[in-house]
């Protein structure tokens, strides 16, 4: 394992986790209990768009400093986006008697994230 890359991932991950936590904390008062999980939805869609943009800029075009991919893409966005929370929220909606909302959330989140990433990728190229 490359020590510099590992430090870049860890530093980016710490910042991404703090950004995700801050987003949830700031919007906690406006989130409806048992309703659409907007915070996680937004984090995953925005994170997917940012990942697509960074992929074009860092991986395809190049010229970024060493460790930028590890810091930004793997660390920061890896921690900011959250599949585990998405899964748990989907399950909670289902268990709380909202199976249609759970199903809609389970389908809409990846479709929106992949769709927005594809649009961003195409626009950046």
TrEMBL record:
<keyword id="KW-0407">Ion channel</keyword>
<keyword id="KW-0813">Transport</keyword>
<feature type="transmembrane region" description="Helical">
    <location>
        <begin position="35"/>
        <end position="59"/>
    </location>
</feature>
<feature type="transmembrane region" description="Helical">
    <location>
        <begin position="100"/>
        <end position="124"/>
    </location>
</feature>
<comment type="similarity">
    <text>Belongs to the fluoride channel Fluc/FEX (TC 1.A.43) family.</text>
</comment>
<keyword id="KW-0812">Transmembrane</keyword>
<dbReference type="GO" id="GO:0005886">
    <property type="term" value="C:plasma membrane"/>
</dbReference>
<dbReference type="GO" id="GO:0062054">
    <property type="term" value="F:fluoride channel activity"/>
</dbReference>
<dbReference type="InterPro" id="IPR003691">
    <property type="entry name" value="FluC"/>
</dbReference>
<keyword id="KW-0479">Metal-binding</keyword>
<keyword id="KW-0997">Cell inner membrane</keyword>
<feature type="transmembrane region" description="Helical">
    <location>
        <begin position="71"/>
        <end position="94"/>
    </location>
</feature>
<keyword id="KW-1133">Transmembrane helix</keyword>
<comment type="function">
    <text>Fluoride-specific ion channel. Important for reducing fluoride concentration in the cell, thus reducing its toxicity.</text>
</comment>
<keyword id="KW-0472">Membrane</keyword>
<keyword id="KW-0915">Sodium</keyword>
<dbReference type="GO" id="GO:0046872">
    <property type="term" value="F:metal ion binding"/>
</dbReference>
<dbReference type="Pfam" id="PF02537">
    <property type="entry name" value="CRCB"/>
</dbReference>
<dbReference type="GO" id="GO:0140114">
    <property type="term" value="P:cellular detoxification of fluoride"/>
</dbReference>
<feature type="binding site">
    <location>
        <position position="81"/>
    </location>
    <ligand>
        <name>Na(+)</name>
    </ligand>
</feature>
<feature type="binding site">
    <location>
        <position position="78"/>
    </location>
    <ligand>
        <name>Na(+)</name>
    </ligand>
</feature>
<keyword id="KW-0406">Ion transport</keyword>
<protein>
    <recommendedName>
        <fullName>Fluoride-specific ion channel FluC</fullName>
    </recommendedName>
</protein>
<keyword id="KW-1003">Cell membrane</keyword>
């Amino acid at each position: 394992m490359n020590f510099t890359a590992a430090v870049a991932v860890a530093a980016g991950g710490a910042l991404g986790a703090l950004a995700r936590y801050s987003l949830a904390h700031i919007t906690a008062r406006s989130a409806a209990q048992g309703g659409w999980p907007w915070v996680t939805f937004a984090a995953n869609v925005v994170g997917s768009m940012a990942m697509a943009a960074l992929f074009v800029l860092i991986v395809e075009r190049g010229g970024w400093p060493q460790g930028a991919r590890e810091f930004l893409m793997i660390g920061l966005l890896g921690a900011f986006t959250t599949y585990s929370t998405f899964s748990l929220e989907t399950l909670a909606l289902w268990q709380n008697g909202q199976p249609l909302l759970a199903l809609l959330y389970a389908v809409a989140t990846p479709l929106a994230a992949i769709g927005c990433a594809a649009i961003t990728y195409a626009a950046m190229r």
